[in-house]
Amino acid sequence: MYGAVLKLREAPPGRAKFSPPITPSIMATLRNKPFMRILPAWVLDVTTTAMVTTMLPFYVEYVVAPRSAAECDRKCCAVLGKCYSDAMCSTEFWMAMGWVSLMTAYILSKPLWLAAAKVLGKRKAWLGFNLLTAVTHCLFVFATEGDTARAVVLAFVNGLPMGGDFLTQSIVADITDYDEFRTGLRNEGRFTIFQIFIPKLVGIPSQILPLALLSAWGFVSPCPNGDPYHPQPRHTKRFIQVVFFVIPTICSFASYLIKRGFPITEAMGELIREGCTKHAQNLPAYDPLRGTVHILPWYLTEPGILESAVWKLDVFTLKQLELFQADAERCSFAGRVSVEQSILWRFRRLLGLGVVLLLTTLVSLSLGWIAHPTTSWVPSCSVVFCVMSFVAAAFHHSRLVTARELLEAPDTWDTVTSQPPMEATPWNPP
To answer: CA angle 412-415-418, nearest 5°?
Structure first.
């Protein structure tokens, strides 16, 4: 590592002189079709992970129930001739054994997934990794009460597909390459942050909702002496099982089906990288996803053009930009006013929803609902969605400010539309 720090040099700077603001950066990312095709699958993956990690202690404690094993019953183990110590009858011991088993399989399976990627191809190995994740997770249905050894074996089996998680980063690299091909700019950090940050927003309610609903489902609190074990009703155990492996299995299969539609194949990836090389020389290149010749955006090839003018337009969707184009052709402002009103309506709706949820949170807390098992989910859920509503409202407010700037300074759009188009004629291969 020390040698790499000394020998490796920083990559040469890209074409852009400045980094775009956060709002244009978000909208530009959301316009990347391969990224948007796979983003729902990532959201489902994070939902699965959040639910499993949240319910794992409850699943081990009350469904697997190590204390109910025959080896932990003094009368039964005397007959069997095999008794566990108090430590081996604890939930902590078997959770640790499960984690060790899972991580062992995770480490051992990595070379196997690397070999599979070389033999089958990156895309097929990646899809196989996702399918196997769904299949192995549903096997927890065979875990029975007191059968701790079987639970540890199932943890090992579930660790086998986890070794292929590095294939996801390879897919992100393809998405980044296509974004560079379309825009002329390299933005690895932006897609990596989106891959982590946006699903995390979904992961928060995925962790809070199961815990809040668990109380409403009849969960019996631990004993006052600190012992977490307490017999739970049958329907509560069923709820824990549903959240721990039924819903995650459904989410995993749905994620796999979505990922099957990922448009970039390995052959397309090679064409995209060749196109990036041509664009570096200011040459047109073939876009394999659209079947057209793609030319670099004019503001990257023309010196002296302010990138801020383009960044302002990046905060709008493609349909909204088409309205701007129609305004330029008709010498009208109707489209821009329509866009401004549309963004304003979304901003007001999200802001109003946030206020309603905030009031719901305050009222439910003042009524003491947080202390009652059947109503504690109301303030827990409302405060999470309240924050998410306010964040979304702030995002649309920044778009609203830009829309009003374009109404006051229409020259920005006129400057952009006066340049050559980015798309040329359809590709006619020789």
So the answer is: 145
394 token code pair: 């702030």
144: which DSSP letter? -
Please, are residues 419 and 298 in contact by the beta-carbon 8 Å criterion? yes
Sheet holding 285-287, edge to edge: 285-287, 292-294, 423-426
Indicate whether this model's pTM tops 0.85: no
Taking the CA atoms of residue 107, residue 109, residue 110 and residue 116 in that order, the dihedral angle to the nearest 10 degrees is 180
Q: Please write the tens of the pLDDT for every residue from 338-364.
A: 888 888 999 999 999 999 999 999 999
Confidence band for 2, pLDDT divided at 50, 70 and 90: low
Closest CA to 132 of 107, 113, 149, 104: 113
The predicted-structure confidence for 233-255, as pLDDT tens digits, reads as follows 888 888 988 988 899 999 999 99
Residue type, 280: A
Helix (H, G, I), strand (E, B) or coil at 17: coil
* pLDDT tens sequence across 60-88: 888 887 776 666 665 555 445 566 666 67
Q: Is the pLDDT of residue 257 over 70?
A: yes
Other C-beta atoms closer than 10 Å to the C-beta of 221 total: 9
325 exposed, middle or buried (CB, 10 Å; 0-12, 13-18, 19+)?
middle
What residues pair up with 22 in beta bridges, in sequence order?
none
**Which residues, listed in sequence order, are joined to residue 287 by a DSSP beta bridge?**
292
H/E segment holding residue 425: strand 423-426
H and E: helices and strands count for the chain: 18, 3
Interstrand relation of 285-287 and 423-426 (parallel, antiparallel or unpaired): unpaired
Could you give the CA distance from residue 115 to residue 164 in angstroms, rounded to a whole number? 10
Q: CA–CA separation, 278 vs 274, rounded Å? A: 6
